[in-house]
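dumping this here so i dont lose it
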């Protein structure tokens, strides 16, 4: 009987420690935990965006949705002085539609769309090489909102002023859509 009691106490203590550790690991974090490289290969710290609404969007230069760059730039210019910023992440995950180097992408964006919002270095937004920012954006365990996957180029993630994922906008929704502008203005 003593041995059984000792085993039960031991197992009980082990489970409690496990639950505590598990709960600590599931603590939600905000987007400000990330530092990435921008398209000019300089450090970009998301903590510099504290207090702003942020749209994170994966981009591609050779996609049917590429003209959304124009709408993204229009949205950025309209709201950038109202604590809003867009952060673009070029990605080649969908049918090889972003084959260029960071330099090629930067030139394309400037020449064709006059992009002035921050663009980051090319990354992977899905699969085994998924970038940590997109791991955060697509995992409910990390973002606290929902598990999701990047459906295609130009999927938009809306981050509130506290750095938490608040809304996912699918690729076909245009940047100047009321759903997005209303979110920025609220």
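and the seq i came up w/
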């Amino acid at each position: 009987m003593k041995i059984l009691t000792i085993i039960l106490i031991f197992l009980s203590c082990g489970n409690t420690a496990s639950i505590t550790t598990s709960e600590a690991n599931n603590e939600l974090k905000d987007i400000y935990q990330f530092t990435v490289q921008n398209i000019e290969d300089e450090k970009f710290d998301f903590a510099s965006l504290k207090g702003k609404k942020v749209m994170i969007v994966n981009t591609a230069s050779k996609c049917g949705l590429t003209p959304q760059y124009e709408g993204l730039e229009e949205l950025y210019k309209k709201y950038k002085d109202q604590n809003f910023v867009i952060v673009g992440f070029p990605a080649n995950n969908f049918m090889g539609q972003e084959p260029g180097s960071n330099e090629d992408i930067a030139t394309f964006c400037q020449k064709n769309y006059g992009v002035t919002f921050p663009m980051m270095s090319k990354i992977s937004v899905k699969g085994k090489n998924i970038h940590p920012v997109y791991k955060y954006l697509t995992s409910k365990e990390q973002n606290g909102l929902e598990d999701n996957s990047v459906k295609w180029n130009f999927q938009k993630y809306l981050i509130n002023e506290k750095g938490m994922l608040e809304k996912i906008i699918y690729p076909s929704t245009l940047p100047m859509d009321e759903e997005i502008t209303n979110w920025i203005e609220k």
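The domain at 27-185 is CATH 3.40.30.10 (Glutaredoxin).
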